[in-house]
Amino acid sequence: MTEPELDIKTRILLAAKKLFAQQGYDGTSVRQICDEAGANVSLVSYHFGGKEKVFEAIFEHFFPGHMLNDLAAESMSPVEGITKIVGEVVKFTMNDWEMSDIVQLEITLNTHRTATVFRFLDPVWTKVKDLLQEGKDQGIFQIDSVSYAMLQVMGVALAHKRAKNSRFTFNYEDMDTDQLAEQTIEFVLRGLGVNRHE
């Protein structure tokens, strides 16, 4: 489906997602969103009730919350859980740069919108923390501190986002998302003291 064929609400959301990722929420006006979407300025208020509601609607429509929340609710072993969640986090951040850039920017700026972001993120990272604790209690994960392990898992799962803007050369166009996810999972599990190939 080409963009002109999309309904106006979807076009507004796609435009806002693109601009929020590029310019930030505060750097983007409703007029810019509507110009990008090819929409009348009044339609943002009519369909969403303002720019703040557009921000929330972007998360409701584009954040893979249902899939990640399903993972968070699933009963799985610590190794299986960490494997699935880390893999999906890497795939999400690689497949939707705009959405993951918005998440990163809002967390960094720590605005009142950050609460919206955490409403979507918290179930996933709470599940990771629970899985780390369970794995530690069962002697599966060789870690001293769940908090430190959590910090390392999050850091590794999101490292490629920070590397994108580093001074080192990373060619993301040639990078295979599934391979990156698999290598990240392997690195995390080895860090937790698990060798899946033994």
UniProtKB/TrEMBL annotation:
GO molecular function: DNA-binding transcription factor activity; transcription cis-regulatory region binding
Binding region for DNA: 29-48
Annotated ranges, domain HTH tetR-type: 6-66
PROSITE patterns: HTH_TETR_2
Pfam families per UniProt: TetR_N
InterPro entries, alphabetized: Homeodomain-like_sf, HTH-type_TetR-like_transc_reg, HTH_TetR, Tet_transcr_reg_TetR-rel_C_sf
Keywords: DNA-binding
UniProt-listed PANTHER family: HTH-TYPE TRANSCRIPTIONAL REGULATOR RUTR, TRANSCRIPTIONAL REGULATOR, TETR FAMILY
Protein name per Swiss-Prot or TrEMBL: TetR/AcrR family transcriptional regulator
Organism listed in the record: Paenibacillus xylanilyticus
